[in-house]
Amino acid sequence: MMRLLFLLPVLLCFGWFYFLRANGVPLKQGKRGFIYILVFSTLVLGFFLLMMYVTGSFDSL
Fold first, then answer.
1. What is d(CA 61, CA 49) in angstroms, rounded to the nearest whole number?
2. Is 59 domain-assigned?
């Protein structure tokens, strides 16, 4: 699962880009959404890394 976690921000950013284009919103105006996506994805990744550290499951990588 950790190997696929990098896809989370890629897919969310692609979806946000598609949403902006479909509604005619310029990228400059939707920049804050990309920042929110990256912050959220960083928090999710950090949570999973913390849980792997707590449970000692780094050996399974």
1. 12
2. no
Residue 61 lies in a domain: no
Number of independent structural domains in the chain:
1
- For the stretch 24-45, pLDDT in tens is 999 999 999 999 999 999 999 8
CA atoms within 13 A on the CB side of 58: 5
CA angle centred on 9, ends 36 and 29, rounded to 5°: 40
Residue 16 falls inside a structural domain: yes
Nearest to 47 by CA among 18, 5, 4: 5
pTM of the model: 0.81
Q: Which range marks the domain in which residue 39 is found?
A: 2-54
Position 9 scores a pLDDT of: 92
